[in-house]
Write a structure and sequence with these properties.
With about 210 residues, the chain is α/β, with parallel strands linked by helices. It has five helices and eleven strands, in the order E-H-E-H-E-E-E-H-E-E-H-E-E-H-E-E. The protein has helices at about 20-30, 45-55, 90-95, 135-150, 180-190; strands at about 1-5, 35, 60, 65, 70-75, 100-105, 125-130, 155, 170, 195-200, 200-205.
């Protein structure tokens, strides 16, 4: 199963230019089996996305990109987010207590929104975005090195805010899942590989 695990939809991410129904159409043409909506500090699309997903038979998993005091973390499997901006460890603990999973986003991108070296200090991360579509090669490569050292789950994600970027990178999971609950269960197995979209479809990679 190929999933783009970091996407922004314009209803709740004001810096996004893409609408959910168009996102699904593009995702299908690019060979994705599911998409994740991770809006900035909002899970407002959750109910609509779940209903629409059932109508069309295409998995849409809604999580969140939470801007902790130390950097961005995507999370899945929670019903709400903290009302205040809290530190990274507190947010990770919040997610884990509720049975969810979380990933460090673009940890080394030079935008003051990544965990960077704090990856080695926080406990409980599920994995790291080792391929982020809006991050330079060098910074992605460094994230890959940290992921291997810390023995965390490597994922790929486009971090797309427009349709051209959608699906640039994705995550391969061994089994197809159709609900958020089963998606979280699949993630917890810890078996994933990042993938890059090429002219002939996706190429799964072990390093970059």
């Amino acid at each position: 199963m190929l999933v783009d695990m970091h996407l922004h939809e314009k209803t709740y991410s004001l810096d996004s230019m893409q609408e959910l129904k168009e996102m699904v159409k593009v995702a299908k043409t690019r060979g994705l089996d599911a998409i994740c909506i991770t809006d900035h500090d909002s899970m407002g699309l959750k109910d609509f996305a779940e209903q629409y997903s059932k109508e069309i038979g295409f998995p849409i998993f809604v999580g969140v990109e939470f801007f902790s005091l130390q950097g961005d973390i995507t999370a899945f499997g929670i019903d709400a987010i903290p009302s205040d901006r809290i530190n990274a460890q507190a947010f990770i603990d919040y997610v884990l207590k509720r049975g969810g999973v979380c990933f460090a986003c673009h940890p080394f991108r030079n935008n003051n929104r990544g965990l960077r070296e704090k990856l080695k200090l926080v406990k409980g991360l599920t994995g790291i975005e080792v391929l982020n579509g809006s991050t330079p090669y060098h910074d992605n490569n460094l994230a890959f090195e940290y992921c291997k050292e810390l023995q965390l789950m490597p994922i790929g994600a486009s971090d797309a805010h427009d349709l051209n970027q959608l699906g640039k990178y994705a995550t391969w999971l061994p089994n197809d899942v159709y609900t958020l609950k089963d998606f979280v269960k699949e993630i917890k197995k810890g078996i994933s590989k990042p993938a890059i979209l090429g002219d002939n479809g996706y190429m799964i990679v072990d390093s970059i």
